Amino acid sequence: MSALDQFRALTLPKGEGSFRLGNSVCPGCRIALSHEGHLALLIAVVQTGTSTPRHFENLRYDPPRALEVIGSRGSKRVERLATLVCRTTDEDLQAAFLRIAVALLNTTAVQLSETELETRLDEFVVLFRTLGRPATQTVQGLWCELAVVVWSRDIRTALASWHSSPAALHDFASGADRLEVKSCATGLREHALRLEQLHEAPGGRTLIASLVVHEFDAGHSVADLCDVLLARFDGDIELTRRLETVVTQSLGREWREAATRRFDLDDARRGLRLYDAREVPTIPQPIPAEVKHVHFVVDLSTTSDLTLANARKCSRFFKAMLPDDE
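Given the sequence above, the corresponding structure tokens read:
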């Protein structure tokens, strides 16, 4: 049973300020139903430091205090707990709240200190509020980056090299090596590029991964690809946090659209092509110093691509990032 299903199974507690307890979702953190009918996480913390209350439209955090909690069999007790409450009945938003909270609050310790909880709450609030802001990337673009991570031979290398900011010049970077992921849904390998994305750092290589994707009702959504990766993380807390952070920052308010759009993963894999940035058609240079931020669309249909075997030979980074031959 998922954490959200656990919440839905809880019965409304009686008594103002009381909470009906559910199961643990991560160490020191249990799911609960407030007397107002809101989804809540009750967090046990070590009594060191202090945390600040946070009250927003759909979110409320209150520092540790004495709470009446009611068990599944109706037993009542008082515990000192912090509360993080999702103040909405929107089930999609509740699911996002749980996913982000568990990713950021999870720890190998039995309990967080209140000082550490304060830091993690700052990260959580910023990320959760991102859901109401404009996207920094298209759903299709993010899906393709996730697909490349899914196909990679070394997920840790892929996630470590994945952009910390969706506004980064390249999607994946390690040392002097760069991998930029481009996609199209028209069947034509036409991609929008920034001139700087074709530049190479000294001693490194830059490759362009081109995907042709097709929407397919029985395909994979962004969430499906995340689930594939989570299953391969084997409970790794840091990898889970990084995945959730990059995905949420990229989607912004488009997270609802991402839940409904699905693409054919196998078809996309068959259509994956790799190009050396030095072979990609570009604008004649030198560019006048007065011209800045050059963007253009390039047709790669007649450009020679690299085999996966040759692309992997470019560096240790590409050997880890790129998939095996089919």
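The first strand starts at residue 18 and ends at 26. Try to locate this feature in the token string yourself.
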